[in-house]
Amino acid sequence: MATRQRRALTSDPPETASSPAYTKVDKPERSDGENEGVDRGLGWLLPLVCLGMLRHMSATSNIIHDCDEVFNYWEPLHYLLYKSGFQTWEYSSQFALRSYLYILLHKLVGWPAAWWFGEEKVRVFYAVRIFLAGLSVICDAALVVALSRKYGKRLASYALAMLCLASGCFFASTSFLPSSFSMYAMSLSSALFLFNKPAMAVSVAATGVILGWPFSILAFLPLTIYSLVKSFKPVFLTGVVTSIVLVVLSVLVDYDYYKKWTSSVINLLVYNVLGGGESHLYGTEGASFYLRNGFNNFNLCFVFALLFLAILPVAKKKYAPELLVVVSPVYLWIAFMSLQPHKEERFLYPIYPLICVAASAVIDSFPDLFRDKYNPNGSSTLVKIAKILRPLALGLILCVSHARTFSLINGYSAPIEIYKHLDYHDDAGPGSVLCVGSEWHRFPSSFFIPDYVGQVRWLDDGFTGLLPIPFNSSLGGTSAAPSYFNNKNKASERQYLKDPEQCTLLIELQLQRPYPTRGSDMTTWEIVAVLPYLDRELSPPLYRSFFIPNQWQQKNVFGQYRLLRRIQK
Fold first, then answer.
1. Bond preceding residue 430 cis, omega within 30 of 0
2. Which member of 152, 242, 385, 496 has the lowest number of beta carbons within 10 Å of its beta carbon?
């Protein structure tokens, strides 16, 4: 007799060999962005186009914010290209604190640009800036795409808008500074980390530290440590190999230029850390310096970024641990740098992109602050209001950022623009001497000095510190160790022109002060170009920091940035 079989019920699964066991992977895709299998992210085109346009604007309109950018980077590059330029004590082979490997990276663009543009050195300057803008575009675009794939389009779009328009990112992205290079590395390293490529992320981090700014190693620590814990062997090997290759390359390049075996990376660390570097000689600031500058450059974006840890308990499921690892250098870096006596705005550059990321995460989480934990998908009145506040907060940040950018560009662009007028006054004759007094620290670099100007000389206006002095080819150029350089910021007898009567041209800033300037003697000098320059001391802080329509020009006080020529008698 045949055995009776139970009739199969419709709820019973078919018993076939091809039906695998049910696992967590078979669960429906989540809509909160935690599952990486769903590609809800932005493509590459939008970030590249938006960042490309804004970075090009930065390259062509950015001012020079720090004289270190000129004398420690633009001037050595000018010397490598044209065999003339100013040298600082850090580039003396006696101290060898600056890496020529970093300068060579920019020479790769500067040399063909110099060949192509010939005597038009200003175009070479902007060609290098376009190169810096391109690096920034690629790294920041990668960060935006990584955020979009990991956390969704909304957060990535917020970050993209801030990276494009936040004043801090706008200006830092095209600055010729190692801290800006470390900023590029921070964006790219964070992007690779979010793409789940920890070995490549640590390799890029090592490049940002060794080729860029050695002190930024602290900002890369959270990402590096987490990556090592997650995947030790490939991350460790990749990081070590990258570091060894770059250090060896740096030593070889330094030997070629300094003509002695040394490491500028180690020298810089030893001078500032182990050797008790006297950076306080160049100015000190209070503990709140970076908080004030952070607000000036990022306004509410900076405030929201600092609140990231506060919203983490609510949004922990979305952002921990990866985004917390990415954003944590904001707190670590600000705390560490605030403890240092010598402070400069550019020291915060490495974490600028992370400020935008942290602020974007906070804005994106506004509705989560008011959701019922027992009904997370519910839409209460407060949740609806929070959703409306997200674009309003972003719009306010972008408007205030534009106001800041507009104020700085229009208020302080006179120094870089006035030197361009030199091209129109070559009738002063070959071998002319251009003199600069107290405005030496706003000198935009020798790229703006036409060939008919034989020398640029400093005039003694009371500054007692050590000024840059032209590279001396007779002493060996880059390998020279001139006796007139020191690391105590003490003035050298050679830095000033003894006889001001030798000056053919003069650059000076005339402000509303009770004492006369050299150029005020109209029997000796004639004005050939003049541009307005915002007087920081006499202008109200609010109006000088941010452009307010119908008030900015009325409330602020302006001086005159002048180019003068000696009257022939």
1. no
2. 385
Q: Which helix (H) or strand (E) covers residue 289, if one does? A: helix 289-298
How does pLDDT run across 213-244, given as a tens digit for each residue? 999 999 999 999 999 999 999 999 999 999 99
CB 508 within 8 A of CB 437: yes
Q: CA-CA distance, 22 to 145, in Å (whole number)?
A: 33
Tell which residue, 86, 98, 95, has the closest CA to residue 440. 86
CB atoms within 10 A of CB 457: 19
- Residue bearing tokens 């604007």: 57
* Separation between Cα atoms, residue 262 and residue 253, nearest integer Å: 10
Integer Cα distance of 311 and 305 in angstroms = 10
* Contact (CB, 8 A) for 397 and 359: yes
Q: Are strands 432-436 and 505-510 parallel, antiparallel or unpaired?
A: parallel
- Give residue 516's region: left, alpha or beta (phi > 0; psi -120 to 50): beta
Q: Is 527 helix (H, G, I), strand (E, B) or coil?
A: strand
Distance CA 405, CA 130 (A): 19
Spell out a b/e string for 24-40, using b for 16 or more CB atoms within 10 Å of the CB, else e.
eeeeeeeeebeeeeeeb
- Say if residues 325 and 352 touch (Cβ distance below 8 Å): no
d(CA 397, CA 301): 6
Confidence at residue 271, expressed as pLDDT on a 0 to 100 scale: 86
Listed in sequence order, the residues at least 6 apart from 114 whose beta carbon sits closer than 8 Å to its beta carbon are 81, 82, 121, 124
Q: How far is CA 92 from CA 89, 269, 565, in A?
A: 5, 17, 34
pTM: 0.90
Q: List Cα–Cα distances, 406 to 11, 27, 137, 175, 549, in angstroms.
A: 68, 51, 21, 17, 11
Q: Tell me which amino acid residue 315 is.
A: A
3-state secondary structure (DSSP) of residue 534: strand
Q: Which residues of the chain have pLDDT under 70?
A: 1-40, 274-283, 372-378
Residue with tokens 């609510």: 314
Residue with token string 């870096």: 333
First to last CA, the chain: 133
Per the CB < 8 A criterion, the answer to whether 83 and 473 are in contact is yes
φ, ψ (nearest 5 deg) of residue 453: -85, 115
Which backbone phi and psi does 560 adopt, to 5 degrees?
A: -120, 120
